Amino acid sequence: MENNRLAAFTTTIQIYIDALDDYSLDMLRQPPLPGSWSLGQVYRHILDDTEWFVAQMAAALATNENSDKDMHRDAKWMFRNNGFPDVQIKGPATNTFIPQPESKEEFRGRLMAIKAEVIRLFGDVDASRAAGKTQHPGLLYFSAAEWLQFAEMHMRHHLRQKARIDAAPGVGQR
User: What global pTM score does this model have?
Assistant: First the structure.
């Protein structure tokens, strides 16, 4: 099961890595509408959140704490359906200021580092035997394997946002 999750994660993160070649820095900084995120801000959100998710994976692999704790019922729905609801989510992260990118190379480097770290983490251990869990701020407790799946679902969810931005007049891919 973890091999499937790892394959899905590496495939999805590679989509983001490869897509950087399709944009100039100016394109990454262009919001489709006033007050909405640019594609660069979406990338930064993905990077910041996924780096935190990877830290949670590592922490869950390193402990047996919280093994008796469960995830929220909304999370159970997402995991059962292997995806976020197909809605534009509004919440604290959406309302947080996210700076525009400084360079495409920063994004590429961080994405590649995340991918390498996840491969290292799950290559070093049998995650199915890891019992530890760490707490998500709103969805309660996830194991390392669940954090991996959640990270991939989160990135895939934002691919829908990427597609909307790509389709916006004057913003899309070159």
Answer: 0.91
CB of 155 closer than 8 Å to CB of 11: no
Which residue reads 């899905």 in tokens? 8
Residue whose pair of structure tokens reads 């897509």 in the numeric block = 19
Two tokens at 14? 């590679």
Cβ-count burial 135-145 (b if 16+ within 10 Å, e if not) = ebeebbbbbbb
Q: For the segment 113-165, what is each residue's pLDDT rounded down to a tens digit?
A: 999 999 999 987 776 778 999 999 999 999 999 999 999 999 999 999 999 99
Distance, in Å, from the CA atom of 159 to the CA atom of 44, rounded to the nearest integer, reads: 13
How far apart CA 85 and CA 17 sit, in angstroms, is: 24
Domains within the chain, CATH numbers bracketed? 2-167 (1.20.120.450)
Contact 172, 165 (CB under 8 A): yes
* CA 12 – CA 81 distance, rounded (Å): 17
Pairing of strands 133-136, 140-143: antiparallel
